[in-house]
User: Which sequence fits this backbone?
DNA sequence: TTGAAAGCGCTAACAG
DNA sequence: CTGTTAGCGCTTTCAA
C-alpha cells in the first residue's frame, strides 16, 4: 500500500539493500547483470528513491534555496489594466529574474532550486523551512530576520543579495546603487542641462533606496547644485500608487513656485505611477518635466514614454549567488566574499533621450 | 562540530527530544516556560531542524515541484540584441510565468516550490530528483519521459501541464489551443476580409501546434475557404530563425502567383522571425500581408508592428496546477480531472488592428 | 562485487 | 503537559 523502499526492491531482485543503493548512487560499482535485475524490480514496483532518506543519510540535498520578499505590487495587481488585460509579462519582478539566474546556474552545477517568498503574516519561520531542506541558500535583503539568519548561517552557507551584509561572516553581493543614481543624475544635469531636480526616496530603512539617494546627492554636489539632506519625499512601499501620490504632492507643493525640471524616483514602479499622474495633470514628459526610475523592470520600456532608468543585473545576481554558494560548499572555511555588481543607465524617452 | 540535533537541544534545556520536537511542530502543546527554555537552548546552539529528518519521519515535505524543459530559444539567446543589450525582460518565458503562478498559489497553501529544468544531456533522471523531494509536482509537457512519469505517478500526485494527458490517471490542464486559433482565424477572415491564408505549423508531434492547426482548419471550413490537410509549412523548433526561413520559403513558393493575405504562425517566435523576414523583403505588415502568432509572449507586444496573437494564461496554469495538487493531496482517490483554460485573442497591429 | 549493521535527525503513538 | 520508544528509507563503513 505504501511506497516501495529499497527493501522491497532488494527482496524482489534478490540482492541486499546496499546493492540497491549502489545502483542508484554509483551504477558502475555494481555488476551489469545485477544492476539490470535491480532496475527491473524497481520499475516493476514503481520505486522512487526518497530524497528525504537520502538527504538524511548522506547529509546533503542537492538543492539550493532562495528566500525573497513578497514583492508583488498590490496596485499593479488590482489594477484592471494589469490583471485583467494581463500580460503578466510586464509585471515581471526582480525576484523572477533572480530566480531565472539562480535556476540556470544551479542546474549547471547539478542543483535544483527551492524558492519561497516570505508570506506576509507567515507563522512558521520561512527561512527555517528552506534552511532545513537545502545545502545552502541566498536571501534577498530584508526578507528574513537578521537574528534567524545569524543562527542559521552558522550551520549552512548563506549569501546575502542586494543589501548590506548585515552579518559579517556571510558572502554577499550588492548592486552599485549609488554609482548608478549618480550616473543618472549626472546625465540629467550635464546632458539635459537640468538644474532643478527632485528626488523621491523610499523607506529610510531601505539600504538600496538610501544608496540611491546618496548617489543623487553626490551628483548634485559635483554640479554645484543645492544638496538636500533628505529626499524631497519618501514612500514606504515604493509602489505605483505611491508614485502617483508623491507626484501630486510634489507638484501641489510647488504650486506657484517653479516646478522641478525632473523628478528622480528611487524605483521604476513609482516612476511609472508618476507618468500616470503627470498625464492626468496635463503635463508632458519629458517636455514639461523629466522622470526617471531605477531597476529596469520590463514595464519600464513598455510604458509611454519609455522610462529612463538604471538597469540592475538581476539575473546575474542570481548566477553569482549560486557560484558563491557552490564555492563555499566546496571550501567552507574560505574568507567571506563581497561582490558589487555594476549597473548601467538606460537612456530612454522620459528624460528626453527617446 | 557537526550540526546540533534535537538531542543536543533536549539535553541543554533539560527536556526530552519529544518536547523539542513539539516546540517546533505545535508550540501550544508545550508549557510556555518549557518552550522558552527549549527555544533559548536552540538559539544558543544554532539549531536548525533538519527538513530531511522531518520529512522522513512524517512522510511529507511541504514542498511542491515543477519540472520544465530548457526552453531557451537559442536564437534569441545568441542574438546580440537580446543578450548583450539584455533586458532579460523581453525574454521572459512561459516557464517563468508558470513558476510565478505556482509559487504564489503554493505559498497560499503553505508550500514551498522546488523547480528544476531538464538539462539537455542530463545524466540523472531529473524527475527522480524532484519526485523524491516533494509532496507532488507539475510537469510541463514533453519534459519527462512518459515511462518515468508512469512509474512515479503511481506514488505521488502529478499534474500534466499544457499538453495531452498521456497518462490517463493524472490530473491535467491544457490550454484551448484550437479554440484560440479558430477565433483568431475567424477574426482575420471576418473582420479583415482576408480570404487567402497560410498556416505555418510546428512539429507533427507537438500536440499544441497540431491543435492550433485544427482550429485554423475549422475557421477555414466555416468560412467556405479551402481546407488543407497539412500546414503550408512545418518548423521543428518553432524558433525565430525558422520563422524567417518559413516566410522566405512561402513567399518564394508563391512567386508569380498570388501572395497570401496573411500568414498564421503556430507560435510568436516564428511570427517575430517572419516580421524580420518581411521587412527585409520590403513587404509591409499589415498593409501587404498580415502576420499572427500564438502565445502572447512579452516580446510580441514590443516588436513593431506589435504582434496579433493568442494569449495563453500561463500564470493561471501554474495556479491551477497547485490547486489540483493540493486537492489531490487532500483526497488521493478522487477521479482525475482535466481542465481546459480559455485563451484570448490579442488584436494588435500586425493584423491591422493596431 | 556484495552483504550486514549501524546510524542519519526527526515524528508519532502510547504511556504516564 | 511531558517522556519513551520505535521506526521513516537511505548511505556508509567494514567485512566477506
Assistant:
Amino acid at each position: 500500500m505504501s511506497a516501495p523502499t529499497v527493501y522491497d526492491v532488494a527482496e524482489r531482485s534478490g540482492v541486499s539493500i546496499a546493492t540497491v543503493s549502489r545502483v542508484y548512487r554509483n551504477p558502475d560499482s555494481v555488476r551489469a547483470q545485477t544492476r539490470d535485475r535491480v532496475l527491473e524490480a524497481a520499475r516493476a514496483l514503481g520505486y522512487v528513491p526518497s530524497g528525504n532518506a537520502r538527504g538524511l543519510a548522506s547529509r546533503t540535498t542537492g538543492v539550493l534555496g532562495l528566500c525573497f520578499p513578497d514583492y508583488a505590487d498590490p496596485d499593479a495587481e488590482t489594477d484592471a489594466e494589469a490583471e485583467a488585460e494581463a500580460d503578466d509579462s510586464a509585471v515581471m519582478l526582480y525576484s523572477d529574474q533572480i530566480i531565472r539566474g539562480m535556476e540556470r546556474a544551479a542546474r549547471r552545477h547539478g542543483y535544483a532550486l527551492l524558492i519561497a517568498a516570505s508570506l506576509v503574516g507567515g507563522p512558521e519561520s520561512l527561512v527555517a523551512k528552506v534552511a532545513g531542506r537545502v545545502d545552502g541558500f541566498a536571501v534577498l535583503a530584508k526578507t528574513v530576520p537578521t537574528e534567524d539568519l545569524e543562527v542559521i548561517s552558522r550551520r549552512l552557507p548563506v549569501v546575502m543579495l542586494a543589501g548590506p551584509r548585515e552579518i559579517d561572516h556571510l558572502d554577499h553581493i550588492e548592486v552599485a546603487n549609488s554609482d548608478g543614481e549618480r550616473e543618472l543624475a549626472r546625465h540629467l544635469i550635464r546632458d539635459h542641462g537640468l538644474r532643478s531636480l527632485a528626488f523621491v526616496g523610499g523607506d529610510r530603512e531601505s539600504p538600496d533606496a538610501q544608496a540611491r539617494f546618496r548617489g543623487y546627492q553626490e551628483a548634485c554636489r559635483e554640479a554645484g547644485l543645492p544638496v538636500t539632506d533628505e529626499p524631497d519625499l519618501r514612500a514606504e512601499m515604493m509602489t505605483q500608487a505611491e508614485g502617483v501620490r508623491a507626484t501630486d504632492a510634489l507638484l501641489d507643493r510647488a504650486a506657484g513656485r517653479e516646478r522641478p525640471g525632473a523628478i528622480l524616483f528611487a524605483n521604476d514602479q513609482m516612476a511609472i505611477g508618476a507618468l500616470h499622474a503627470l498625464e492626468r495633470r496635463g503635463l508632458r514628459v519629458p517636455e514639461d518635466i523629466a522622470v526617471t526610475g531605477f531597476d529596469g523592470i520590463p514595464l519600464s520600456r513598455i510604458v509611454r514614454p519609455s522610462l529612463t532608468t538604471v538597469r540592475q543585473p538581476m539575473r546575474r545576481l542570481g548566477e553569482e549567488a549560486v557560484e558563491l554558494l557552490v564555492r563555499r560548499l566546496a571550501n567552507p572555511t574560505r574568507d567571506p566574499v563581497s561582490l558589487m555588481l555594476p549597473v548601467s543607465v538606460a537612456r530612454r524617452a522620459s528624460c528626453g533621450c527617446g
